[in-house]
Amino acid sequence: MDDGLAANTSIRQEVEVFKNDKDKPARLLHYLKQYYTPEKKVIIFGLYKKECAWLETFLYDKGYPKVIALQGDMSQDKRTQAITDFKACNKTPLIATDVASRGLDVQDVELVINYTFPLTIEDYVHRIGRTGRAGKKGLAICFFSPDSKGAQDEKAHAGDLCKILRDAGQEVPKDLQAIADTSGGNKASKKKAHPLFGVHFKSAEQMAALEAKKVHTKFEDSDDE
């Protein structure tokens, strides 16, 4: 991790450690019920497009008709309209990946929820930096799943996350510190060095083009992508 990396001290950070990913949807609804109103700008970050699409459907079905997912492969017109609607609170919460949110500059975001931890600690700091701007206070909630069966090993980030929290004067949860004490820091703090970089963010056309360039080896009885 870059020694100069630091979180905005105007942001209150809360980290909830999950033993089971299946508990995350209910906790997301809990936090939205506690903090969300239609007049508030809320950003929910997922790790990849499919997760964001699922979150959009899930929240719509749970009574959030204004929810919108900012997709990386949206047309420019649709992306512009989605951002315009979000800025005016016509559409909120906004769900996005790190890639889809590039260049998104919106004031008065009151809450950021990290539904899935990003690939790097730098992206975590960038995500939560969407709130707490221009001297205002902000709230960032992070779901942390050390035993997740998902796309990455989240516990590798525990040490760096503890440092970010501590340096910003935030409370470090005991269960997060315990994970950090036994797992160490992230060994791929730069996204382009991360083995998963690009896997979930490329369009179907890009992935097809890449696959066409590969020398394919057939593995019997394999469920891998």
TrEMBL record:
| Superkingdom of this protein's organism | Eukaryota
List the SMART domains: HELICc (SM00490)
Which PROSITE patterns is this protein grouped with? HELICASE_CTER (PS51194)
Kindly give the InterPro entries that the UniProt entry links to this protein.
Helicase_C-like, P-loop_NTPase
Chain ranges of the Helicase C-terminal domain = 31-180
Residue ranges annotated as transmembrane are none
Q: What's this protein's name?
A: Helicase C-terminal domain-containing protein
This chain's source organism reads Polarella glacialis
